[in-house]
Design a protein that fits this description.
- By secondary structure, the protein is mainly beta.
- It has three domains: 46 residues, no CATH class; 104 residues, Sandwich (Immunoglobulin-like); 99 residues, Immunoglobulins (Immunoglobulin-like).
- Helix content is 5%, strand content 49%.
- The strands form four sheets. Strands 1, 4, 6, 9, 13, 15, 16, 19 and 20 form a nine-stranded mixed sheet that branches. Strands 5, 7, 8, 10, 11 and 12 form a six-stranded mixed sheet that branches. It has a three-stranded antiparallel sheet with strand order 14-18-17, with no helix packed on it.
- It is flat, with a radius of gyration of 20 Å.
């Protein structure tokens, strides 16, 4: 997806947050809107979240097959996502909570739930729940039906089977005010456990040992960009790799300055 599409996506997101707007890329500013009382505000200071499920509402999987579900959330502050099966928590990931009194970012996060060897107990309804600050939203149900195999009634899952890496959480888009720190999530699964590395907006592998750089790959695989500036705008690629192969995703960072 190109720069213009990202800007349009985020502009729509900002309008959703009660009418604030993003000005042109040339101006590189974020403008204020009006709340219900007529007071000026920016979407950065208004907590909001929207969610959508990227999987079919009904999914059928054979015993021993692979189940893969996906949902996404966009909001301010950047959201986190939790997966539930029959209201029991399965997986939690997304943007890390910031310790700031006012969180100024807007972001989009995607999350995959992957079950490599489906068994009858995996049947039931699945939901993903998004959280942005104090705002929460729950997706519609995904109903999973497991087809049992009459010819292999005692089928079981073998442990420690080698698996190619799959990235299960990432942030495709992040908009943040300049001079702020940003954290781009990237979590992956695989066997052996994959190593995660990042490529920056200049197509260079990020070296976390370079202390003069404002980039740092964190132990959990996330990318920290300190005090972002206009020069940091662009696509960053997270790559998860093991001896069997690799998976990769892109995150687009768009720095803006707040319009006074």
């Amino acid at each position: 997806m190109g720069l213009i599409q990202y800007i349009i996506l985020l502009a729509i997101a900002c309008y959703t947050a009660d009418g604030a707007r993003i000005s042109s890329p040339k101006q590189n500013t974020i403008a204020v809107g009006k709340d219900s009382s007529g007071k000026n505000y920016t979407p950065y200071l208004s907590e909001w979240i929207n969610m959508s499920v990227k999987s079919e509402s009904i999914v059928t999987v054979p015993v021993g097959g692979v189940l893969e579900l996906e949902c996404e959330a966009v909001g301010g502050p950047p959201p986190s996502i939790k997966w539930y099966h029959r209201n029991n928590l399965l997986q939690e990931a997304g943007f890390s909570e910031q310790n700031e009194i006012i969180n100024t970012a807007i972001g989009k996060v995607k999350s995959r739930l992957i079950i490599d060897c489906v068994m009858p107990h995996h049947q039931g309804f699945y939901t993903c729940a998004g959280t942005s600050g104090s705002k929460k939203k729950i997706s519609s149900d995904i109903n999973v039906f497991v087809q049992e195999n009459d010819y292999m009634p005692n089928l079981s899952c073998k442990p420690n089977i080698p698996k190619i890496p799959r990235i299960i959480t990432w942030g495709p888009t992040l908009l943040e005010i300049t001079n702020k720190d940003v954290n781009l999530p990237c979590a992956a699964v695989g066997n052996p456990p994959p190593e995660i590395y990042w490529i920056n907006n200049k197509n260079q592998i990020i070296d976390s040992d370079n202390f003069s750089s404002n980039y740092k790959v964190l132990p959990n695989g996330d990318l920290l960009i300190s005090r972002i500036s206009w020069e940091d705008m662009g696509s960053y690629t997270c790559i998860a790799q093991n001896s069997l192969g690799q998976d990769k995703v892109e995150s687009f960072v768009y720095p803006v300055r707040k319009e006074e």
